[in-house]
């Protein structure tokens, strides 16, 4: 998809340290551009390894008009394919998740194995070559149990940079040895970039997230020292330095890595202490699951935050993991998918209670949805104009916008840009909530 002259002009005049112009949040043309330039060209976090624990288990992911089938094969490898039959293009798997022995097209029963090879196609004649009609593959990377896909023919090569940096942080939590205890989908009536901007700061946390700030220090997410917060920031920084030294002595990397705007595959991480001598992001700051993750023998290991551009964030604790993935549905609608993971041997009702496990982020997600929807309505107003970010609390929001504008600018400057199909997704209905036990 080509970048129009109007969008080029908005890219060029984007004012550093300010919100984006209204069409970036409200225009269906820019929504289609976002799908083409961002969501079809970058590594998108879409699933976790425990979504497909056994051979034949699968999930499907919708990105615009593209459906991707993620399946575990008989050798326990996780693969991704375009969810499209090579015969006449029928959708192969029409459920969000399930289990199968082979992949069978519901239309004419063309049958593929779990590595995508066409095994059976009746009535095609002796000249038909099955080997030329395997499923089309989608690039997939498994980062310590977090599943990323890329629809581009040539995905960004710097995923290796993120892997090298992040595996030492993530692997001790043993995500691959977890199970999905609960999953909630929220449909926000707001643009996906507003969802991500809201996540990239905690300026709003104290006033809006009473459940979350029981355990979470808002200072840990982009705050800078000011005369007003000097005392609190000093105490927080001392606590961070002391606990970071303790954790790293336990071979748990904890120091901040911030690569949000200088890499195509941007990311950020840091392990931070939790408030009230906290162990986990719960209403009492104690562990939600008695069965700790990995080989952990103590609960007070803080919260490891991991953000990826363009669409995910995650919180890793001693007892559970919370994973968030964001997918745009239209200019004004966004899917936010949240998953809570516990050790695969943890027993519901004995080791953990699902309501206690999910209480903080169910409340926080609902509060954030309201804030995003306020912002979307404001951006649609004739009175809207880009406003300034706080230099003391919203620097990481600016990093997200810098990254986003740079990606669009790269496309605008690229020679011989080819049109791709515009992609927009029909409304998905009302809020969907599901618990998996």
Automatic annotation (TrEMBL):
InterPro entries: Rieske_2Fe-2S (IPR017941), Rieske_2Fe-2S_sf (IPR036922), Ring_hydroxy_dOase_asu_C_dom (IPR015879), Rng_hydr_dOase-A (IPR001663)
Keyword flag Oxidoreductase: yes
Pfam family, one: Ring_hydroxyl_A
Keywords, alphabetical: 2Fe-2S, Iron, Iron-sulfur, Metal-binding, Oxidoreductase
Region of interest called Disordered, as start-end residue ranges on this chain: 414-437
SUPFAM superfamilies: Bet v1-like, ISP domain
Lineage: superkingdom: Bacteria
Residue span(s) of domain Rieske: 43-149
Molecular function terms from GO: 2 iron, 2 sulfur cluster binding; iron ion binding; oxidoreductase activity
UniProt cofactor(s): Fe cation
Biased composition (Polar residues): 417-427
Family named by the database record: Belongs to the bacterial ring-hydroxylating dioxygenase alpha subunit family.
Entry-linked PANTHER family: CHOLINE MONOOXYGENASE, CHLOROPLASTIC
Protein name, entry field: (Fe-S)-binding protein
Organism: Caballeronia glathei
């Amino acid at each position: 998809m080509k970048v129009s002259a109007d969008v080029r002009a908005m890219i060029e005049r984007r004012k550093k340290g300010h919100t984006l112009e209204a069409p970036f949040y409200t225009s269906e043309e820019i929504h289609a551009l976002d799908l083409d330039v961002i969501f079809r060209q970058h590594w998108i976090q879409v699933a976790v390894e425990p979504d497909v624990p056994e051979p034949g288990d699968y999930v499907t992911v919708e990105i615009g008009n593209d459906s991707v089938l993620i399946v575990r094969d008989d050798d326990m490898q996780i693969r991704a394919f375009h969810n499209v039959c090579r015969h006449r293009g029928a959708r192969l798997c029409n459920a969000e998740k399930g289990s199968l022995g082979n992949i069978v097209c519901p239309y004419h029963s063309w049958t593929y194995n779990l590595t995508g090879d066409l095994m059976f196609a009746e009535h095609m004649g002796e000249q038909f070559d099955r080997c030329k009609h395997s499923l089309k593959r989608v690039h997939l990377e498994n980062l310590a149990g977090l599943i990323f896909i890329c629809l581009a023919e040539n995905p960004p090569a710097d995923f290796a940079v993120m892997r090298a940096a992040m595996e030492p942080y993530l692997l001790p939590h043993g995500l691959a040895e977890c199970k999905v205890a609960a999953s909630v989908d929220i449909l926000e009536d707001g643009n996906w970039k507003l969802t991500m901007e809201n996540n990239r700061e905690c300026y709003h946390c104290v006033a809006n997230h009473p459940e979350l700030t029981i355990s979470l220090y808002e200072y840990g997410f982009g705050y800078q020292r000011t005369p007003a917060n000097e005392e609190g920031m000093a105490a927080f920084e001392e606590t961070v330095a002391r606990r970071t030294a303790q954790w790293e002595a336990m071979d748990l990397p904890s120091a901040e890595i911030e690569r949000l705007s200088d890499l195509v595959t941007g990311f950020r991480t840091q392990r931070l202490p939790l408030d009230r001598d906290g162990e986990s992001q719960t209403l009492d700051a104690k562990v939600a699951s008695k069965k700790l993750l990995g080989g952990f023998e103590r609960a007070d290991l803080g919260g490891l935050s991991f953000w990826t551009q363009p669409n995910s964030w995650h919180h890793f604790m001693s007892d559970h993991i919370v994973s968030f993935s964001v997918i745009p549905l239209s200019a004004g609608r966004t899917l936010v998918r949240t998953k809570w993971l516990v050790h695969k041997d943890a027993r519901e009702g004995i080791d953990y209670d699902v309501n206690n496990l999910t209480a903080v982020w169910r409340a926080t997600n609902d509060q954030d949805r309201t804030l995003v929807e306020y912002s979307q309505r404001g951006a649609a107003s004739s009175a809207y104009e880009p406003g300034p970010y706080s230099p003391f609390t919203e620097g990481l929001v600016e990093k997200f916008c810098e990254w986003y504008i740079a990606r669009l600018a790269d496309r605008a400057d690229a020679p011989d840009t080819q049109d791709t199909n515009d992609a927009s997704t029909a409304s998905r209905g009302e809020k969907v909530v599901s618990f998996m036990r």
